[in-house]
Design goal:
single chain, 573 residues, alpha/beta, seven-stranded parallel beta sheet, five-stranded mixed beta sheet, 17 strands, globular, DNA-binding
Length: 573
DNA sequence: GCCGTTTTCGGCCCGACTGTTTTCAGTCG
């Protein structure tokens, strides 16, 4: 019984209860489903270790739901859930995935014409049976068929790196629509979540209709979900849905706050407003009928008694409490990183030379760059000790011709299966920056994998642990590491943990960054660039650092060159 | 069903759009 299994049962119970119009309980189960998905370790393990009391520690889980979770873990079944299923035996997950179908409609479809699966639904729609039902009509029938079509080609969530460019382009085009005063991207994209489900755009416009007309007719639009005076929603050819809202200038801040989310953060703000006898919605903060804030986000937070909370922190992971206590972190800024510490060149699998990479990094405003080509045990033929020495000489020569910029000698050294490194210590000691990384034996059991990387970090030459979990978003699972043990070892050995900014990696991820920051472990933010184009990806890594509450002081390559070199493990430079 | 600087009861965020409907329920975010 995995966490995902438990979460699925909780979510289905919520839907079943919604079908019967049960008040409030469904929200409780829904909340628990989200909470369980957010827990890093298996709930079964938590239960084994700490009993039912430990399960009740999960936010939103009380006595009753804890008992149900424990029953699920112990027996693999839950009578309460089985009863609900027996009453309405339908494929909840499949049917709710269809746009516009909710609990009430699913119940009607089952009771009136016996729809249990998406296949049943499609058959009924094609036979024209759905339009006959109460509260359904011809349009609902068409909408359902279209929804099934979209479901079949659904791609789920999108990596931020895959959508940010297009969204920025749409933003730029909207700015040029006549009568448009202001445009902003909101939602999870503004919070810089590593993957996003949809896009949210906010606009101030003199003639809202003109913006809406333009928006729904954009060349990328394949379907219009809805078009109104203030809100429209479309599906793009990439499969992603995008919402557009037009708001009055006086409500800009409140709307931006509302549509940036997260949902939980917004709910918490509304509760705060209620406590202060105020009402918060997307139009502003109101005392009775009188607007007391709304024009800027700062104003909205201000009347709630809070300092401005940066979007990357709005995930309901303690930011409200920190804001109230005045202990919000002074997050690292998007211009604060001075050097790039992981880059590959034509010496191994990169597309550009050392000179080209250095020139582009300098053009982007960096003060230094570490060249970290792969090492010998990698299948693609990485550098051996002799080649590394040749490269060091080449870099020395290049540095003589540079002003205000330094190329550092480095390597991305493979960690062998036993935790030893594939380059000898003598050579490593000659390098300025040694990154170590896992590229093989990705499937070792947790204890062995953890021992392996900790042994690598214990090497006095290992400055930085590159992309620690080796995950590739939506392609490769992270290696099985006891991340708390790795962070503790990083602290003990003074090894820097990397945030790999490459949008498919973002490794460490935000949650792990937060743990590292809390533990006082230093971070490096690097692009892992394999061509000059990748050098500009740094901001994705900085966003991840910000989402992990990192300040400038937590990041070694926010330091000027001398300070950065001094911050690495002592004794050899 | 959960939760508590409203704490063991009484609350639980709020509004736009759609479709089917003559005033609103359902869904979504």
């Amino acid at each position: 019984m995995t966490n995902a299994d438990i979460a699925r049962v909780m979510r289905e119970i919520a839907v079943f209860l919604d079908m019967d119009g049960v008040p409030f309980k469904p929200r409780a189960y829904e909340k628990v489903a989200y909470a369980i998905e957010a827990v890093d370790e298996p709930i079964a393990g938590i239960y084994q270790r700490g009993g039912i009391k430990a399960v009740e520690e999960i936010p939103g889980v009380g006595k009753s739901i804890a008992e149900k979770i424990v029953t699920l873990i112990d027996t693999g079944k839950l009578p309460y859930y089985e009863e609900l299923r027996k009453k309405t035996p339908v494929d909840v997950a499949g049917l709710t995935a269809i746009e516009g179908l909710g609990p009430k409609n699913i119940k009607t479809l089952y009771q009136e014409i016996g729809v249990r699966t998406v296949a049943d639904l499609e058959k009924a729609a094609l036979a024209g049976k759905i339009r006959e039902l109460p509260h359904f009509g011809e349009k609902s029938e068409q909408k359902i068929l279209k929804g099934i079509g979209f479901l079949k080609q659904r791609s789920g969530r999108f990596p931020l790196g895959a959508v940010l460019a297009l969204m920025s382009e749409i933003e730029a085009r909207l700015v040029k629509v006549p009568g448009v005063h202001r445009v902003a991207i909101a939602g999870s994209i503004r919070r810089r979540k590593e993957t996003v489900g949809d896009g949210d755009i906010l606009v101030i416009a003199r003639k809202p209709e003109a913006v809406m007309d333009y928006f729904v007719a954009m060349p990328e639009v394949v379907h219009v979900h809805g078009k109104g005076h203030t809100k429209s929603s479309v599906k793009l050819n990439t499969g992603m849905d995008v919402d557009l809202r037009v708001v009055p200038a006086a409500s800009w801040g409140a709307a931006l706050n509302y549509f940036t989310g997260s949902k939980d953060h917004n709910v918490a703000l509304r509760r705060l407003a209620i406590e202060k006898k105020l009402k918060l919605n997307e139009y502003g903060v109101f005392r009775g009928d009188k607007a007391v804030a709304g024009k800027t986000e700062e104003e909205v937070y201000g009347v709630l008694g809070l300092p401005y909370i940066p979007p990357e922190l709005r995930e309901m992971t303690g930011e409200i409490e920190a804001a109230q206590a005045g202990t919000l972190p002074d997050l690292i800024g998007y211009d604060d990183v001075r050097g790039d510490l992981q880059t590959q060149t034509t010496w191994t699998d990169g597309a550009n030379s050392i000179e080209e990479m250095a020139a582009e990094a300098q053009r982007l405003g960096r003060e230094y760059i570490a060249i970290t080509d792969h090492t010998k045990s990698l299948a693609m033929m990485g550098a051996d000790e002799k080649q590394l020495r040749q490269q060091m000489k080449a870099i020395d020569k290049l540095n003589k011709g540079l002003q205000g910029f330094t190329i550092l000698k480095g390597a991305e050294v493979n960690i062998n299966k036993d935790g030893s490194l594939d380059i000898d210590d003598e050579t490593l000691a000659e390098l300025d920056v040694v990154g170590v990384a896992v590229h093989s034996h990705l499937n070792l059991p947790r204890a062995e994998q953890t021992r392996r990387v900790i042994r690598a970090m214990e090497n006095p030459n290992a400055d930085i642990f590159f992309h620690p979990t080796a995950r590739v978003l939506q392609k490769r699972e992270p290696i099985d590491l006891d991340i708390d043990a790795v962070i503790a070892a990083a602290k003990r050995t003074r090894t820097v943990l990397e945030i790999d900014a490459y949008p498919e990696r973002l490794d460490l991820k935000d949650e792990h960054v937060r743990k590292a920051v809390d533990a006082g472990v230093k971070l490096a933010i690097d692009t892992d660039a394999h061509s000059v184009h990748h050098l500009s990806y740094l901001h994705f890594g900085i966003a991840t650092a910000r989402r992990g509450w990192a300040t400038r002081a937590d990041v070694v390559n926010a330091l000027p060159l001398r300070g950065f070199l001094r911050s690495l493990k002592g004794g050899r430079r």
